[in-house]
Design a protein that fits this description.
Elements lengths: L13 H10 L4 E7 L15 E14 L2 E3 L5 E12 L15 E7 L13 E8 L6 E9 L8
Antiparallel strand pairs: 1-2, 1-5, 2-4, 3-4, 4-7, 5-6, 6-7
Length: 151
């Protein structure tokens, strides 16, 4: 994009230069995990989870939909926009029905945050992309009618 006198409005390197400002707004501590695979006979215990990344984050609830599933049961879910540093998302990570899962572990020292978020397991549904990348946005959901939504 070109402004008056052929000056560029957004110069090269602008997003990289401003990433530290975006990261400074992330006061939460989170980790992205891949849940362990179900175990087999005889114990059927799940295998260990795989930690994909531990990083700072910013979490905000987007809406609180209530819907009825095919069996007529009310499903109580929440949608969240989670922001992590631009380069924190592991390259090649596949997003599917099994995850990955983002776990809110706490807050940076000096930040109280929302205690109801700590321990919450949010399923990553989408990794959002854009032409300017100051941070990486993740669209997440939690189904509170199932175990694992809140600890």
């Amino acid at each position: 994009m070109v402004g008056l006198n052929r000056t560029t409005i957004i110069p090269p390197g602008w997003e990289r230069h401003h990433r530290p400002v975006a990261v400074s707004t992330m006061t939460g501590l989170c980790r992205v995990i891949r849940p362990g695979q179900p175990g087999g006979y005889p114990d059927f215990e799940d295998g260990p989870e795989t930690v994909l990344v531990e990083t700072v984050c910013r979490v905000q609830q987007q809406n609180r939909p209530g819907r009825v599933n095919a069996e007529g049961q009310l499903v109580d879910s929440r949608d969240y926009l989670v922001t992590i540093p631009a380069n924190a998302w592991p390259t090649g990570t596949v997003v599917n029905d099994a995850g990955p899962i983002l776990v809110v572990d706490g807050y940076l020292p000096g930040h109280a945050g929302d205690p109801d978020l700590v321990g919450r397991h949010l399923r990553v549904e989408q990794v959002l992309h854009g032409t300017l990348r100051f941070e990486r946005d993740l669209y997440c959901t939690v189904d509170l009618t199932e175990t694992g939504g809140a600890v």
